[in-house]
Amino acid sequence: MAVKAQSNIKTELWGNVEIVCPICRLKKIINIPMRIIDQSKQLTSLLIPTGRVCDHAFVPFIDKHLKVRGYQKLDALLDDIEPKTELFTELKPHDIDVFEIKMNLRPEIMIYAVQGSLLKKRILIVIENNLEFLKDTLFDFFDFIFQKSFDVHILIHTKETYSVSKKHYSEYFVLKGKSIIGGMKKSLNINELKIEQEIIKEFYREGDSNLGLKNLRDKLREIYTLCHKLLEFYKKQGINHPLQEKKAIRYLEDTHFIKISKGYFKFLVDIIKNYFNTEIILVQDKLAEKIDHMWGL
User: Fold this and answer.
1) The whole model's pTM is what?
2) Residue 74 resides in a domain
3) Among 78, 118, 144, 293, which residue's beta carbon has the most beta carbons within 10 A?
4) Interhelix angle for 107-118 vs 194-205, to 10°?
5) Is 135 found in the same domain as 103?
């Protein structure tokens, strides 16, 4: 069924398509821009990336009435056939005690930890001395939610350990209680982290521990993938050419089938600047700079 959706760019038509993975049979409804369907004369083929519906990538064939008429399985992805530098046993959701984490780690700390990781910062979480038993669980938690996405640097110390070694962590986001402490405490304002707050709120609200973990991991993978796609798009047009925000948002929507608001787009641009060490120059920024120069500002 097609529905009108209000984008931050303009009002346009999106469609709901029920997708069933041909491998694991997991079902999910995804939204796609109707402009993609309208461009095809008959069936529209879409590459559903890993993590969008499930852990598999595949191609559905969709007709003009948004009905799936068939699927094509992919024999292999590049990630699956490239040589691996190390082997490890992948963590599963049931290996992690989510209840203990939610009971003992405040949401604010989780928000800061996620944001710091997206900005490629080193992070130290300080826990109460009587919670030392939670360290392994927390390490497993962060390993799981950042699987196949961002590389993170997170340490966990008790208050006692931190008190005798705090001078070594002046360049870290030190998280304690529900705040950032130490020299970098002014680096982040939790009230400005709207997207991160919503992601973590959804995790804490979810009553199904396994589902909550998977959703959090998949959201972080989605952010990582969108950043890669946007960076690739920017480099393809030439990094010396300012990027048109509207054109870039449409590219992301058409390739990942997700509505991108201007706020979410800015969120991705900030991550690319800090994590991928590339500053994306936007047309509107250059225009504002030119106007300021004309007025002698």
Assistant:
1) 0.75
2) yes
3) 118
4) 130
5) yes
